[in-house]
Structure formats: structure tokens, C-alpha cells
Amino acid sequence: MKAxxxxxxxxxxxxxxxEIPDQKPAAGxxxxxxxxxxxxxxxxxxxxxxxxxxKVPVVLGSDGCGKVVEIAEGIKKEWKGQxxxxxxxxxxxxxxxxxxxxxxxxxxxxxxxxxxxxxxxEFNLFxxxxxxxxxxxxxxxxAGLTGYRALFTQGCLQKGEKxxxxxxxxxxxxxxxxxxxxxxSEVWVTSGDDHKINQSMKKGAAGGVNxxxxxxxxxxxxxxxxxxxxxxVDSAGGNGFNNLIELVKPGGRVVILGATAGNPSSINxxxxxxxxxxxxGTTMGSRSDFVKMLSFVEKMKIRPIIDSVFxxxxxxxxxxxxxxxxxxxxxVLEHAH
Length: 337
What we know:
Elements: E1 2-6, E2 15-19, E3 29-38, H1 41-47, E4 58-59, E5 63-71, E6 83-86, E7 89-90, E8 104-105, E9 117-121, E10 125-127, H2 134-139, H3 141-154, E11 162-165, H4 171-182, E12 186-191, H5 194-202, E13 207-210, H6 216-224, E14 229-234, H7 241-247, E15 248-256, H8 269-274, E16 278-281, H9 287-300, E17 306-311, H10 315-324, E18 330-334
Parallel strand pairs: 11-12, 11-14, 12-13, 14-15, 15-16, 17-18
Antiparallel strand pairs: 1-2, 1-4, 3-5, 3-9, 3-18, 5-6, 6-10, 7-8
């Protein structure tokens, strides 16, 4: 079969379409013929060597939507021919609070969805939401799972609360925006791109500020008036983290799902304990989170925002789009059908 293979850890040029051997599903597994696959920043970080325990060659891709074409013995026969999406969280374990030691994400070290076919456990299969297109369905799994857990399982977001989403524009943040708006929260955003802030407001955000402005925290607080942020969901970290501690209200919550700006050089611990702020880490999510996320998306009629769709053969253009950081929503690869 044809697949986009990462041959070495270097840059986008290290990716190439190659023929790799077909495989048979082992016990408990199925083969899905992919219709669409979505990119994640994780793919870009792996290519650049910014991820732990990278092994090459490997087929990247955590998100996919397609049709089950082959099942191992013992698998429920009704899966055969079914349109499905894939939960990319493999081997989460039985503790809903934390992933077990052998947890991993589809697309490294296991071959992922940027291929004609992918082998996945039956346990990770879910029927494609009928109201979503193949492109939208492919955009949902990793970002939807990560965002849902951050907002609701870990962040305990409630109707009427004010939530700040940092770095709006990517797949996770854009889905969190839609989810938070759907439950009746007041959503504020930050971005280094005014266009993305404007796009967010068209999707229901109350407003946003450009973090390139030196006084952006004061600008945001001024726009909030007497209100305060109940929940911050941050994917950047870095030296701006203390600003979030100042912005969140006493007794508020900060959920961290990434550290793209690295670790802060210092943290104001006194402000954290005096304001009694809860700081919570999160990553991906349990199977229960995935089930709840799917139900939530269907109930609230959320459709993932698609930034752009590229033919499978134009994968390098898709990666370049992500590398440029101009996207708002998910970047999707589509196979010819």
C-alpha cells in the first residue's frame, strides 16, 4: 500500500510517499481503508525531532476516517463495511485519572493514518458521526478528545463561566472554542494573529487580544471590566505563564495541555497559593472521555472547523501550511475515491 513515510528526523523533506508491505490484522484488530486523515502539530514535532522516543521509518497520522475492510477472527462482523473514526489514544488503561505506562498515540511508534490503510484495535473504533462529512469526521478524534478532557473532565467548565483559550487557531483550540460556546460559556482568546482573533469572534468568542502586545494582560482585563476569568486552558507555557496566574480569578483553574513556548523561567508560587488557584495538567483522554466527547459533539451539532483540504499526493503542501502557522481549524488529507 502507499503511505507517507518519515524516513529520518529532519524536516518536511524527510517525508515521501512510498510502498510499504500490506499486513494482516492480529487478534482484536481491524483494517480501515482511509478516506481522510487530519494533520496535528504532533506530526510536525516528530518530524523536527521534538518528541520523545522517535523511531523511523514510520507512518505518521493520528486522525482518520474510513471504512472497515478486513477484520480479524472474533471481531464483530457488523464492523465490516462500516464507516468509522478512530480513537488515537492506545492503551490508556483502567484509571480515568491518568494514562498507564504503555499508553501511546496512533502515528508513532505505531504506523498511523497517513496511508491508504491502517491497522487499529477494535476497541478504538467508533461509528462515524452521521452528520459530519468525511473531512469533518477525520478532524475530530485527537483534537476533540484533547479539548473535551481539558475543558470538562479536568477544567470542570460550566455554563456562564468565563474561559480564556490561549493560542487560538489550531485544531484543539478551535474545537474547544466551539465546545465552550455550545455550553454557554463566555470565551476569550489570545493569538499572535489579529485575523485569527476575528475568526474566533465570528465563531462565538466574546473577544480576544494579541499576545505580541506588551500590555496584552492589561488590555484583556480592561475588556473584561469587573469580570474575571474562571478557567484558562493553555498550550504554550513559557514566560507568559505568570500572566495567566494574574488573570485567573481567586479560586480559579488553569489547565495545561502543552508547552510550545517551553518552561517558564520562574513561577509566582505566592500568587498561586494566595489566590488558591488550581493548576491541572492534561493530555489526550480516556475511552470514557472519547465516548462523552462524541455524544457532546452530536448533541450540540458541532462541526469541526476545516481550514483546508489537500489531496494525499499534495501532503507536503499540507505540512507547509501547518508549519506556517496560518491555519484556523484542521488541515485534512484526502484520498482519491
